[in-house]
């Protein structure tokens, strides 16, 4: 049985505690344990002990209010999510709560067991996502510190050698350039991460709030629309996190090439089938294999990640009703794979930066993405000892061609 989620209600009214407890008892599965703190000081003491997974905080707490408690707890380093309980819907208060660290808000007397369970679940997921961002940001900061230390050591070494002035200037220039590049990478990471996470999280919060307003059977279509928006937003968050984590693992040298022998045609067909649920209306993937042989020896998981990324891009950057052409061929020594779309293409001025981390072409600013996908694809291909080439024409589409050495015994 899953471990219980410990929830602390901070409210100076015992009747509200009893009401909240009854609502929580009606949650299907009842996988929650509710505690109660009746004052600001008592709540702050329990938060400092870090024994609860999530906090429900009433706005009114005697001499203090819930916003003060949340702000104080966040300043002291609390990582658990906070949900503000208000007496009535107040947009200014709600927005202020989100700015100081609350993950969500609920209007007292209007939520039911399903709304409460959904709010707790999404708040926990939000907190988990933010923790991942903070972890990755800390790793980047550590690398900046390491580069700075390298610069200091280089300067110290130069002071004790008889190198020429020209050599000394060149080494310092290289060290400074590395530091500038890393600082620029960190800046791009923070900008991209904050923007890409804010959009789907805002969708989740707004749709979760609206779903609770549709309670009749006549509202099923409206309710389902917001549920679908939430699912799509959570899927986007997962994709973004996976991209960040993939880059981290590559940088740490934790991605390995582990070839296995398998048949390429059924493998590629499964990927095409998996992609159908992500295509735009009227789009299709035209997959074809040339030649009688389809036995290959490559890393199956890395190849799947590469193909899903390229096919997803082909769909994302193409209009509805377009076709993505996917071909494979195998001979005695080489595996060749192409993915061709009929999309917006890549401007000539941007093609030289296509595989730069976090880089996005000037004509895709309105299409969601992190700018990491093609960088990950290229580095996976290099790990697999393959090569990647591409051709692109603005408003006509892009073709990626991948080649791998084939060591399979036919």
From TrEMBL:
One Pfam assignment: HATPase_c
Enzyme superclass (EC)? transferase
Give the coiled coil ranges. Answer: 126-185
Quickly give the catalysed reaction. Answer: ATP + protein L-histidine = ADP + protein N-phospho-L-histidine
InterPro entries named in the record:
CheY-like_superfamily, HATPase_C_sf, HATPase_dom, His_kinase_dom, HisK_dim/P_dom, HisK_dim/P_sf, Sensor_HK_Regulatory, Sig_transdc_His_kin-like_C
Q: For this protein, what is the EC number?
A: 2.7.13.3
One GO term in the molecular function aspect is:
kinase activity
SMART domains per the record?
A: HATPase_c, HisKA, REC
The residue ranges of the Histidine kinase domain are 192-408
- Alphabetically list the UniProt keywords: Coiled coil, Kinase, Phosphoprotein, Transferase, Two-component regulatory system
Q: Tell me which residues make up the Response regulatory domain.
A: 6-123
Residues annotated with 4-aspartylphosphate modification: 58
Task: Name the Gene3D superfamilies for this protein.
Answer: 1.10.287.130, 3.40.50.2300, Histidine kinase-like ATPase, C-terminal domain
The family database entries (PROSITE patterns) matched by this protein are listed as:
HIS_KIN, RESPONSE_REGULATORY
Tell me the PANTHER family matching this sequence.
SENSOR HISTIDINE KINASE RCSC, TWO-COMPONENT HISTIDINE KINASE
Q: What is this protein called?
A: histidine kinase
